[in-house]
Amino acid sequence: MKIYRIYLKNNNIKINKKIVINNIKQVHYLNKVVRIKHNDLIEIFNNSKYVYHAKIINLKKNNIHMKIIKIIETKKESFLQLHLGQVISKKQNMDFTIQKSVELGVKTITPLISEKCYKKYKNDVYEKKITRWKKIAESACCQCQRNILPKINNITELKKWCIEQTKSLKIFFNPYSSISIKKLPKKHIKNIRLLIGSEHGFSSIEIELLKKNKFYDILLGPRILRTETASITAISILQFKYGDI
């Protein structure tokens, strides 16, 4: 029997504790979408290394009561600390990138504004987008059974992001580079900062700045990939080379 998962921002969960779910969207999902019943089990994750099995004890229109009956320690997180810097792309493409990168184990995502960014918005629009992307990341964690929500940073200027001090291996992809991804260091790497540009790539000034700040200038194959394809391809390769795939 499939056990449905939900995220709860609650650090005080223990055996036999009774919990009330009153989030409108979660209540609707459990009541109307998956149609849970009395005594059904729900799996809860709360940004820790544990998951919690809870039995439904009371169903109401606006809230759901459940009781914790089991605590399980899990190991779903990749040991590769992968930070994705993604230049903002079109809505559906950006949503796809957020979703799939979470499924592939990315720990941090920073949406970026570059000189050739798809579109620039006002700050209040950006705030709404961050909220949306965090919800997408939460849903992706529910689907792929990750228990730790990846961090979605505030939208940042590319120039500011690339000069941040870090001990990570830093990579960006350039279709005009002569260096294959196979040429990356073979030694064990724990931290990677991966930069993916927009559909229009990077300006010459940005490329010089990236190289100056010790980003590896890498060619991701002979074909020009869409930005969302490049993100998923690069993350998959890096997880295979240094992570848990």
Describe the protein in words.
The protein is α/β, with parallel strands linked by helices. It folds into 2 domains: 4-73, Hypothetical PUA domain-like, domain 1 (Ribosomal Protein L25, Chain P); 81-242, 3-Layer(aba) Sandwich (Alpha/beta knot). Helix content is 31%, strand content 26%. α2 runs parallel beside α3 (123-144) and α2 (91-103) runs parallel beside α6. The two termini are 27 Å apart.
The helicity comes to 25-40%
> Helix count?
6
Number of strands: 12
Order of helices and strands: EEHEEEEHEHEEHEEHEH
Number of domains: 2
Radius of gyration, in angstroms, nearest whole number: 20 Å
Taking pLDDT < 50 over at least 5 consecutive residues as the criterion, the unreliable ranges are none
CATH topology of the largest domain: Alpha/beta knot
Could you give the distance between the termini? 27 Å
Relative strand content: 25-35%
Q: What would CATH call the class of the largest domain?
A: Alpha Beta
Q: From the 3D coordinates, which CATH architecture of the largest domain would you assign? A: 3-Layer(aba) Sandwich
Find the structural class using helix and strand composition. Answer: alpha/beta
Under CATH, the homologous superfamily of the largest domain reads SPOUT methyltransferase, trefoil knot domain
Main β-sheet, in a few words?
7 strands, parallel
> What global shape is seen?
elongated
Question: Which helices and strands, and how do they pair?
Answer:
Elements (H helix, E strand, L loop, with lengths): L3 E4 L10 E4 L2 H10 L7 E5 L4 E10 L4 E10 L7 E7 L3 H13 L4 E6 L9 H22 L6 E2 L3 E2 H5 L6 E5 L17 E6 L7 H9 L3 E3 L8 H16 L3
Parallel strand pairs: 1-3, 6-7, 6-11, 7-8, 7-9, 10-11, 10-12
Antiparallel strand pairs: 2-5, 3-4, 4-5
